[in-house]
Design a protein that fits this description.
This is Polyketide cyclase. The protein has about 160 residues and is an alpha+beta fold. The protein has four helices and seven strands, in the order E-H-H-E-E-E-E-E-E-H-H.
Length: about 160
C-alpha cells in the first residue's frame, strides 16, 4: 500500500440524506467525530459554502499541526469536499438516498501528488507515510460511524 492511494470508508445510515447532511455539516462537532481533527476555523465570512477556507488544527499523539482547507464541493444532501492545500489531498463525503436511508461514502483520493511538506512531515512526525495513511483510513471509518450514530439518534428523536 502507498500513502497516496485512495482511502475509503462507507456505511448505510437509517436516516434521510437531509438529517445526515445536518450532522455532517456541523463543523463545530466535526472534531468530536474525527480522531485527528481538533477544530476547523473558518477564515472567511459566510459560513460553510463553496470556496470557504478553513484552518484545520490536527493532532496525532503529541504532534499538532495546521492545515489549510478550501471547500471544493458543496451540494446540500449530496456532497461535501475540501482540498487540503498543505498536503495535496482531497476529503470527500458523498451521500445518496438508499432503501429509506442514506449511503455515506467518505473518500480521500490524492488527485495531485502529495506535497513535499506532507511527504517530509509524515515520516518524521507521524510514524511514516504508509502507516499514517492506514491510520487515516481507520479514522475515516470511526468518523462515519460517529456520523451514523448521531444521524440515527437525531432521526429517531424526530420521529417521536
Amino acid at each position: 500500500m502507498t500513502a497516496d492511494r485512495e482511502l475509503r470508508a462507507e456505511t448505510f445510515i437509517n436516516a434521510s440524506p437531509e438529517v445526515v447532511w445536518a450532522v455532517l455539516t456541523d463543523l463545530k462537532k466535526m472534531a468530536e467525530g474525527s480522531p485527528e481533527l481538533l477544530t476547523m476555523i473558518p477564515l472567511l465570512p459566510g459560513g460553510l459554502r463553496l470556496g470557504q477556507t478553513y484552518l484545520g488544527i490536527n493532532r496525532r499523539k503529541a504532534v499538532i499541526w495546521p492545515s489549510r482547507n478550501v471547500v471544493s464541493a458543496f451540494e446540500p444532501g449530496k456532497a461535501l469536499a475540501w482540498d487540503t492545500k498543505t498536503s495535496g489531498a482531497t476529503w470527500i463525503y458523498e451521500l445518496s438516498a438508499e432503501d429509506g436511508g442514506t449511503r455515506l461514502v467518505h473518500r480521500r483520493p490524492v488527485l495531485k501528488k502529495l506535497t513535499l511538506l506532507s511527504k517530509g512531515f509524515a515520516p518524521v512526525a507521524l510514524g511514516g507515510n504508509e502507516e499514517h495513511a492506514d491510520e487515516l483510513e481507520q479514522g475515516m471509518a470511526q468518523t462515519i460511524f460517529r456520523i451514523k450514530t448521531a444521524a440515527e439518534s437525531a432521526a429517531h428523536a424526530a420521529s417521536r
